[in-house]
Structure formats: C-alpha cells, structure tokens
C-alpha cells in the first residue's frame, strides 16, 4: 500500500511549497487548487501536482500527524502509573482534591475545550492551532517534569496539557483534510494516525513503569522532547498555505464556551473534593465548598443549555445534532461505558501495585516493567481491533456487537471484584484486560459509525468531536465518583473478613465501574436501535479507495471536524470548473 501510494503522489495531491506566513485564503480541493494556480501564476507541474517539496517532507508530515495521537495516549495511560507513585514521593498527597484530580484534569479540560478549538480551526484553519498546541504541550510537560513533587504545579500542568491536546486534535484533522483529497493516500495517513493509539497507550505504561520513583520527571521530559520534535517537523513540513483560514464567516460562541467550560470544571471539582472536605459538626455532610461548587456548576450548565438551544446564533453544539433516533440514548450509554473504563484503568493500576493484591501477599507487589507487561494484552488487542473492527461491522449485526461490548464492560471490573487474593494473572487479570480492550475499541468504533451515519453533511465534523468528548468527559467524572465510592467502601468495611480497608476500597470502585456498565447495557437493550442499512452505507462510503478497516474508522471519525465549509467548497469548485472551461476555450482559440 505504501509503494502504490508513493508512486501516485503526483496524481493524488495538489499543492504548493510550504510557507509559514500569515493566514491566506486557499483552495479547498484539487480542482480549486488548479483554479487558484491559473489565477495567480503560470501553469506549473510542480504547483499543480505536488503538495510537498519532496518525499522526505511528506514523511515528516506523516510523522507529525502520528505523533499527536501517540502523545495523547501516552499522557493518559502512563500517568496512571505515575500517579500511583505519588504517595511515596509526595506528589499527589492532598487533603482537598484527592488522588485522581490531576488525572481527571487533563480529560476534563480536553473535553471542555475541544469544541472551542474545533470552531477556531473552522474559522482560521488548522495550522496555527496545531502549532500552538504542540508548543504548549512541550512547555507544560517540561514544567511538570521539574516540579513533579508539587501538587499545585502538577494540577496546573495537567490542565494545560489537556488544553494543548484540545488545540492540536481537531487542527490535526483539519490539516489532513485540507492537504489530501479523498483516496488511498489520505486513508493511509489516517490509518497511521489510528494505529498509533494503542502504541502510545502501551508506550506510556511501559516508560512510566520502567522509571524509578526518583526519576519520575523523565516521564514528562520524554513527552516534552517528543512534542518539541513534533513542532520542528510540523514547521518544516506542513504546507501552512494549504491549511490557512477557510471559513472566516463562522463565529465563535464565546458565551456558550465560557458557560460550558466553567460549569464542567465546577461540577468536577465539587465531586473531586467531596471525599476530603466534610462539615466539622456533621460528619458525612458535604461542606459549603462541595455544595457551592456543584450547585453553581449545575446552574451554569443549565444556563448554557438554554443559551445554546434558544439564544446562540452559532451554537457550539446544536440541538439538532441529537434529533436523530437513538442518538441521545446512545450518548448516555457511551458515557456509562467510558466511565467504567476510566475507573477500571486508574484503579487497576493502583490495585495491582498494592502489596495485598498480588501473588504472595505480604510485602510483594507488581511494579516496574512487570506491571506494564500485565497491560500488554490491551495494546495487542487494540491493534488487532483497530485493523479488523470495520470488517466486523459487515459480518456481525451492529446491535450484537454493541451488546457484546457492553457485556465486556461489565466483566472487566467485575472480574477484579470477584478475584480471590492473591490475584492470579492468567485466571482473572488477563481476562479483565481482554474484556476492557473489547469494550473500549468496539464501543468507540460503533459510536463513530453510528453517530456519523445519522448526521447530515454539515455535522460530520461535529460527530467526530462528540465521540472524543464522550470518552474524556466520562473518564473525568468517573475518577472522582469512583474515589467517593472507594472511600465509603473502605470506611464501611473496615476490619471485616480479614481484608484490608484499601482492598475493600478498590473492590468498591470496581463495583461502581461494573454498575455503570450495567446501566449502559440496559440503556442499549431498551432504548438504542441502530439501522444496519444506514451503518453499511456509511461504512461503504468511508471505505471507497481503501482496503484498510483501520483507515476507514479514522475517516469516519474525522469527517473534516467541521473544518471545510460546504458552501465555500462548492463555491471554489464552481470557480475551478469555470477556470477549466476558460482555459479550454483559450487553447481552442489558439
């Protein structure tokens, strides 16, 4: 596939020499690029057929795109292990926000800011947002590495890392959509992007697990170095004039953005501090900090709902998006499933490192590279399902796959609840890993296909953004809720059955995760109905020109993230057609 794509580059893409200047109005398609070249300069084979100056530049661009996905997964998965090192280093000891607050901050800010940066990419193109994102990520991962033992700096750094990822995620897709036309070459790039997700997930776990406690800063410094390299390759290889402003007529909904972001942060903070902030006179009763944060956050979200639905001229998330049948119920089920994943991932890492939770008991525990190897099935299964996931949609009824993934979600944490101590890897841990992998990959694939299949053309980009928001928002809230349940279980079961309170806390968190998945299963069974014909047509449309299921899933995920305004694209294509007719007339006259 790589050979055929490399041989056809002159026919597959059109473009110009990279120029990192200001925003320019640029062609949105190969035909529009032809019209642009006719209008601005004499015909040139280089200008008409080559986006990149040479093959090395395109390789660098592909590396840049793939590295953004790697870094995203790296910073989410590996931090689960870094967080577990906190109690010994003092990094995560806090009396106010809990052990999972630094982890939930990245997902929270990412989900809250994603629609905002998607709109900015709509307005100004992807290049500047992308460059800001990778630079910002490099800065704040570098800072986090130096102040790894400061809870305040770690919190701020994780929030800024989420902001950086929110900046370059939609702009990455914007650049791919503006540089590559539909075809095998674009699908290969998207497949490369998708394939880096499981690699980044396992890479983060492996590096974090291999580093000793006193060298934890290197986990962030490695991310900072990779971000710096990504910035350099982007500056040298991204043809920024092809990714400049596309739809300046689009407006930013600043009021909705502020209301949504502030509301989500306040609600998440209220949940995070609840186990640690109690009224001194009434044990168990939340303090004014909890009540105030939750109340104000919910009020702001209610106002945002009203404003977006009835007042905003250009809402970030239109109500029409949820109008198709089963979309609202399916999104609720996905929130339940992804909440299970967040609670399972972060609690399992800590559980496996607990001295009472592994074979041998006593002072033994699983740590270092052994712990990363325990998670190896998630990486292998992720790669396999990334490749064959699209094919399964045409072999197995999609509702069967959805319910199967729901059962896998229930089983993953439930196996750890029922597992006797000391844990046995092959009987309980590995099956739990496989179930979690089936759950996350099947659910995400189905969500991409279903949500994009029922949305009109103008919402295709928004569909991809919503799929990512569901994952990160659910994980953010689930970490705080699982900690509330864990603290309560440890308190209630203290001194019973010869099991330590810490172990009861983990079992309580896993029980919450299984219950959340069970609610999702019930919602899917009773309220979700997915049309096979609609999904088949969407999948077929996304697979034209490519035999890779991996790239098909990425294609459906991307849409164009709302970057290519359909009216502008039609106008440019019309201009291109007129330009071709004028050129043919001129040649016939000669």
Automatic annotation (TrEMBL):
Residues 25-48 are annotated as: Disordered. It comes from the Eukaryota. The keyword Transmembrane applies. It is found in: Membrane. Residues 61-532 form the Major facilitator superfamily (MFS) profile domain. The chain crosses the membrane at residues 59-80, 100-120, 127-148, 160-180, 192-212, 218-240, 252-273, 285-307, 327-346, 371-393, 400-422, 428-450, 462-484, 504-528. Keywords: Membrane, Transmembrane, Transmembrane helix. One of its GO terms (molecular function) is transmembrane transporter activity. GO terms for cellular component: membrane. Residues 25-45 have a biased composition (Low complexity). Coiled coil: none annotated. It holds the Pfam family MFS_1. It is a multi-pass membrane protein. This is Major facilitator superfamily domain-containing protein. It comes from Neohortaea acidophila.
